[in-house]
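ok so dumb question maybe but i'm new to this and my supervisor (M.) told me to 'just get the structure for Luciferase-like monooxygenase' and walked off. so i did the thing. is this what she meant?? sequence i used:
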Amino acid sequence: MTQNSRTQDSRTQNSRLARTPLSVLDLAHVRQGGTIADAFRNTLDMAQHAERWGYKRFWLAEHHNIAGVASAATSVLIGHIAGGTSTIRVGSGGIMLPNHAPLVIAEQFGTLETLYPGRIDLGLGRAPGGDFAVTRALRKDLRANGDDFPALLEELQHYFAPVQPGQTVTAIPGAGIHVPIWLLGSSGFSAALAAELGLPFAFAAHFQPDNLLPALDLYRRSFKPSKILDRPYAMAGIPVLAAETDEEAEFLATTPQQMFLNLIRNRPVPLMPPVRRMEWDAFEQSAVEAKFRAAIVGGPETVRQKLELFLDETQVDEVMIASNPYEHSARLRSYEIVAELAGISPRRELSFS
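this is what came out, is it supposed to look like this??
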């Protein structure tokens, strides 16, 4: 081993990045010119690579009525991914609980945990996962705005608890099954609720970065120990796109930039190929850049430095990475580079299940 190699190994082992679990967020993106079946095959392939590279979790997110996002039937897709992997934790990032009867979610995730014991996570959010039309189609009551989320969560936890004498409705499977519940959010609401209930908290900085630090501070200051956790456990989701050079990564990053630009224009489309020049006005550029304020884009050394700075600033216990270039091979390489930088391995011992 050369002196440079020993220095690099020492730096990796002593860095915060090397001590922080890394996970993957996936939306089963459909590429322009591709099919939903292609997206599902790529999602499974990504999960299998992530497992080999030592990522801890592979989460799928519930979104509806968005062209280019195929993860709407989240529980079904979780089962497909868990069935095609063997060690990585698979879960939701998240299930939008107000869209569903808590009993149904308890039964679905009780089934998943029974099929894949010790590998299923249940991340919960309160947004509809789509536009007004989606809210109307899913929730029927147009007055529903997520304020009933705490009550729905309590009902869901009741179905996961051991059956009590006289209980008239039981989740089968689900009752008495331990499925780790996470609260997800992009504001202080879920941070405060997670702190009150002693649950792990994940902040969605991959699309709403500005509230990250205040939400983490609120969660940590307000945290009450529980049977689940004796101290706060916080995760942040951020966009990371790594390539061989800064220039290549910045070019590839125009694909997710176009994705957000088209959402702003209310015309979502499948992932588009990268471009040398973004066509947008000043307002659109500002809006897209705000969404990517926490994004880390660059070659290996740039990504390493920025990830270390992010971890030092936020002190999060875990990072969930969203990386969405156009080509599947570029996506795989992005996650591989980050795994190499972190020195993660499948045998690594991690603290929270």
